[in-house]
Specification:
The protein is α+β, with helices and mostly antiparallel strands. It contains two helices and four strands; from the N terminus they run βββαβα. It has helices at 47-66, 90-109, and strands at residues 2-7, 14-24, 28-41, 73-83. Strands 1-2-4-3 form a four-stranded mixed beta sheet. It is globular, with a radius of gyration of 17 Å.
Length: 129
């Protein structure tokens, strides 16, 4: 899932661009970087860890609001992170995490998605030509 949270509202602005996957996991929310993860932009020491933690925090907060009382059991796998030296902040990635959770839930609810029922309610095609 590719997520962009870019907001131009003066200085500093907000820039958070990431590609993540949601995978089944043990209880809780596990954060990991893929073995082939890429980073674009200027990253200061410690920034990537803080931004990824904020991303997970945003996912956790959004899922808690959208699915109250439902325990989490997923891994958030980060494949790509874009960082702007001035405009990327923890807040930016927290909001990107919220967007990623919303998009994941929307994909699960959408007809014909991998997690949804599909347009025919899960029925096999009729075989008519």
């Amino acid at each position: 899932m590719h997520v962009r949270y870019v907001r131009q509202a003066g200085c500093p602005s907000d820039v958070a661009v990431t590609t993540v996957d949601f995978e089944p996991w043990e209880e809780g929310l596990h954060l990991e970087a893929a073995t082939d993860a890429t980073v674009r932009g200027d990253v200061l020491p410690g920034d990537l860890e803080r931004f990824h933690a904020a991303l997970a925090e945003g996912v956790r907060a959004e899922l808690a609001e959208q699915l109250p009382g439902v325990p989490l059991a997923l891994a958030l796998v980060v494949h790509h992170t874009t960082v702007h030296l001035i405009d990327t902040r923890e807040h930016s990635y927290r909001m990107a995490g919220r967007l990623a959770a919303r998009e994941a839930l929307a994909a699960l609810a959408a007809p014909n998605s991998r997690g949804g029922q599909g347009g025919r309610g899960g029925q096999e095609p009729s075989g008519r030509t």
